[in-house]
Design a protein that fits this description.
The complex is a heterodimer of chains A (441) and B (264). By secondary structure, chain A is an alpha/beta fold. Chain A has two domains: 241 residues, P-loop containing nucleotide triphosphate hydrolases (Rossmann fold); 158 residues, abc- transporter (atp binding component) like domain (Coagulation Factor XIII, Chain A, domain 1), CATH 2.70.50. In chain A, 26% of the residues lie in helices and 32% in strands. Chain A is built from nine helices and 18 strands. Chain A has a six-stranded mixed beta sheet with strand order 5-6-7-3-8-9, with helices on both faces. Chain B is mostly helical. Chain B has one domain. The longest helix of chain B has 32 residues. The relative contact order of chain B is 0.14. Classes of the chains: A alpha/beta (441), B mainly alpha (264).
């Protein structure tokens, strides 16, 4: 295997321009530091000791959250910036699709800009001449090529930039999240072009948020987070690791949201000594806002959402098992009680609601501490954020302890279907109907 | 550094097309277009002629008659010099997109500023020729030889300063403001609106320190004064100095190069 791109222990430290937007002569003279001697607080590590190799002819994906160092890595490969430490080696002519049409001058025509941009990217005049028609064809700008670039729409501008850059015929193509520039048709054309590049044995380094793109195109992938390499290798595996981490972060966020909601509900809860039945808005579960109320003769002490392995979680997948466990306590034994559950989506639509009374369970006795588990075998909800109502009340609705929309969880799905409920389903076809491959972008 | 310097030759196609772009874009949208290249120095000349021929006619000496032509020989190269530096100072900042987003040889930008202004200078020469013919002062062969040499020296000198100014202006935006004032001072320290022989001893010594003095005096000897070009020793010294200055400027530029993408 020959290596087209190699990064060895690369770190990149940017300077922050904090209090002073621009350095001035005066400050430089006063501090006697023109470029060096910066305080650590004035620097920001964008990449920390990152190494990876890209084999010649392969397509390599770089993923990560915003600010994870992806674009910095790409700029280092392109040679636009130099690493603070470590080494970057690239073999072959590079074309970087980082900022499309970066060198365009607004006042002059598209035609002249194509020539100048091409020369900037390392082509000769003759090479551009011979590819000119192809470039214009690709950009779909035949009618406007002689108009000044300032009159172009942003889509036209990007298309022309893309068309020039891709026609440089590089050995190494660097792509930074530029596929979002055109309409559906143009995006397909770009992807076809990438496919052609791959077939011709060119190396592609692809930075994108689109995991589908990485899964579909890349031979290898790397995942950066906060400037550090988290995983590298088979795209499927790296994407898996990445998604798990994203879920973990989301989970923390949801846990914090829930904790805050419960906390806030508890604070004003110097629990109303008298039953708050008199408050009509609260008894209507479709209009009330979040909160907690009730006489607390029986109390929901704790609520936990459990995944299929009984672990507390806030992120679930469509079709997974999920349990809602209420830890309840009754100070004195009671014989009139109903446990209720309500599921709401982000729009406040009640997706499902039930209670033990509706399901014809006859209460006999609740005393001391107890666990109540509402187990969902398969969570057939579409992707989204959901909130939960849990309650203990009398059969006539008198609330002991009502928790309104205090618990938040998230359902994730690999399918982008819409609605609320995802019925178990499959498709069957009779007759001459054929599907093949995948249509994923 | 010298490898990079050699690259500069490789970039000549790029420089050429950028200069062409600069010239095309400059007057795009103006009614008179390229005519402005002729009109601008003419207007400047009119202003100074008004001041020194109408308002203060006694300030210049007899030797510098016709005074308009005398001044024109200095103003034309000065305009090239000063607009080059002013534009070069902002060239990296306004070309920031290129430096940040494309692998682009940054030194091309200040050099393009200088060359684009050189083209304007050359476009001004026909007007000068018209003046020379009108006043019946055809330059001799000697002068025709020294004229391109003078231009070459000025080109080297201006490029050298342009490299310094552009690289430093990225880090110290103050330079652009300092520069415009400094150029005014520099203009009056160069024998353009007066004759160098008018300066008293001390003044002459000060003027001799100014490389632009020798360039402008050379132009005047070539175009305005009769007889052989007597200033060539000075001119060649300035030329040698300019080459050193250019290397120093390039060295500084090369040192600071990696910081441009971040600081622009």
């Amino acid at each position: 295997m020959t290596t087209a791109i190699e990064l060895a222990n690369v770190s990149k430290i940017y300077r922050r321009y904090g209090g002073r937007q621009f350095a001035t002569l005066k400050s430089a003279l006063l501090q006697r530091s023109i470029l060096n001697d910066l305080q650590p607080s004035e620097t920001f590590p964008a990449l920390k000791n990152v190494s990876f190799k890209v084999a010649k002819g392969s397509t390599f994906g770089v993923m990560g959250r915003n600010g994870s160092g992806k674009s910095t890595a790409l700029k280092l490969v392109a040679g636009i910036t130099k690493p603070t430490s470590g080494s970057v080696k690239v073999d072959g002519r590079i074309s970087a699709l980082i900022e499309l049409g970066a060198g365009f001058h607004p006042e002059i025509s598209g035609r002249e800009n194509v020539f100048i941009n091409g020369i900037m990217l390392g082509l000769t005049k003759r090479e551009i001449q011979s590819r000119f028609d192809e470039i214009v064809e690709f950009a779909e700008l035949r009618d406007f090529i002689d108009a000044p670039v300032k009159t172009y729409s942003s889509g036209m501008y990007m298309r022309l930039g893309f068309a020039v850059a891709i026609n440089v015929d590089p050995d190494v193509l660097l792509v930074d999240e530029v596929l979002a520039v055109g309409d559906e048709g143009f995006t397909h054309k770009c992807l076809d072009k990438f496919g052609e590049f791959r077939r011709r044995g060119k190396t592609i380094l692809l930075v994108t948020h689109s995991l589908n793109l990485i899964e579909r195109f890349c031979d290898d992938a790397i995942w950066l987070d906060a400037g550090e390499k988290q995983a590298e290798g088979d795209p499927k595996r790296v994407i898996g690791a990445y998604l798990t981490a994203v879920e973990a972060t989301e989970e923390q966020l949801l846990a914090a949201t829930t904790a805050r909601a419960v906390q806030e509900a508890a604070e004003p809860a110097a629990p109303a000594a008298e039953p708050t039945e008199s408050d009509p808005t609260r008894s209507d579960m479709f209009t009330a806002t979040e909160g907690r109320w009730g006489s607390r003769e029986a109390e929901i002490v704790r609520v936990a959402l459990l995944d299929k392995s009984e672990q507390p979680s806030f992120v679930f997948h469509t079709g997974d098992a999920m349990s809602i466990r209420l830890h309840v306590r009754a100070l004195n034994p009671i014989d009139d009680f109903v446990f209720g559950i309500g599921l709401f989506n982000a729009d406040g639509v009640c997706c499902y609601g039930t209670n033990t009374y509706i399901e014809e369970m006859n209460p006999q006795r609740l005393a001391g501490e107890a666990d109540v588990t509402f187990a969902i075998d398969t969570l057939d909800l579409v992707e989204g954020t959901y909130k939960l109502d849990v309650a203990i009340h009398k059969r006539d609705g008198y609330p002991y302890d009502y928790h309104r929309l205090l618990y938040t969880f998230r359902v994730k799905s690999r399918t982008q279907d819409i609605g609320v409920y995802r019925p178990r389903h499959h498709w069957t076809f009779a007759g001459d109907v054929l599907f093949g491959g995948t249509n994923k972008l | 550094m010298f490898a990079n310097l050699a690259n500069l030759v490789r970039y000549r196609g790029l420089i050429q097309s950028l200069v062409a772009r600069d010239l095309k874009a400059r007057y795009r949208g103006s009614v008179l277009g390229f005519v402005w290249s002729f009109i601008n120095p003419l207007l400047l000349l009119t202003i100074y002629s008004f001041v020194f021929s109408v308002v203060l006619p006694d300030l210049h000496s007899k030797e510098t008659e016709p005074y308009a032509l005398f001044m024109f020989c200095g103003i034309l190269p000065w305009t090239w010099f000063s607009s080059s530096l002013t534009e070069a100072a902002g060239s990296l900042i306004s070309g920031g997109n290129l430096i940040k987003k494309v692998l682009f040889p940054a030194e091309v930008l200040p050099i393009v500023s200088v060359l684009a202004n050189m083209v304007h200078f050359i476009l001004g020469l026909p007007i000068l020729a018209v003046f020379l013919i009108y006043y019946r002062r055809p330059p001799d062969l000697d002068g025709l030889f020294w004229f391109p040499v003078t231009m070459l020296v000025q080109l080297t000198f201006t490029c050298a300063l342009a490299l310094f100014v552009s690289a430093l202006a990225v880090h110290f935006r103050d330079i652009r403001d300092i520069l415009s004032n400094l150029l005014t001072l520099w203009f009056f320290s160069t024998p353009i609106i007066y004759w160098i022989k008018q300066a008293p001893g001390l003044g002459k010594q000060v003027l001799d320190f100014n490389p632009m003095t020798h360039l402008v005096v050379s132009y005047q000897e070539i175009l305005f004064f009769d007889g052989p070009v007597g200033h060539w020793k000075w001119l060649l010294s300035v030329g040698a100095f300019s080459v050193l200055l250019f290397l120093a400027g390039y060295w500084l530029f090369d040192r600071l190069r990696d910081s441009f993408a971040e600081a622009v």
